[in-house]
Amino acid sequence: MKSEIMNESYRKLEEMAVEGGANSVKFIPVENISVNEWVRQKCEFGCRLYAKRFTCPPYVQPVKDTKKRLKEYNTAMLIQFKDLTDRMQWKEIQNLMSGLEREAFLNGLYKAFAYTAGSCKLCDVCPAEELEKGSMFERKKCVNIRIARPSMESAGIDVYQTAKNAGYDLKVVPKENMCFTSFCLLLLE
């Protein structure tokens, strides 16, 4: 009986993801999620938004904590978004991921937690940018904390290897103006 309820919940989540713009959904064992320190290093020394979003390093958990947290789960939902043309599309994806996390929670998967793709786009200017400029006179925090989630990369998740482990063929996009594919992750139980 429990597995029937679980299967129904997973089916609902998959439907919701596809209706929200996902091209593909795969339920994967958490062991197939690749987590490595070097991924976080790429954020620190390669991303122009490093320390400018509360969902990015150094504000999110260290990689070692991601590894520990993943051990508390068995299953994850890997969600593919293909043919994206604008990074602002991530805002809709972030909202979808928040909705999926909530739906999972309401369906008894109370440990559900979402990881998005790329840097947060919920605010035009994140309060973290004020911290970077040295304006620490007042305590700044994320104004969208109920929706905002860290990206897979910011938490040390190797998106390319995780996608490969799930059977996807993910290629590097060599030019900014080309269509690209993003992945998000929803941890389930």
From TrEMBL:
<protein>
    <recommendedName>
        <fullName>Metal-binding protein</fullName>
    </recommendedName>
</protein>
<dbReference type="InterPro" id="IPR019271">
    <property type="entry name" value="DUF2284_metal-binding"/>
</dbReference>
<dbReference type="Pfam" id="PF10050">
    <property type="entry name" value="DUF2284"/>
</dbReference>
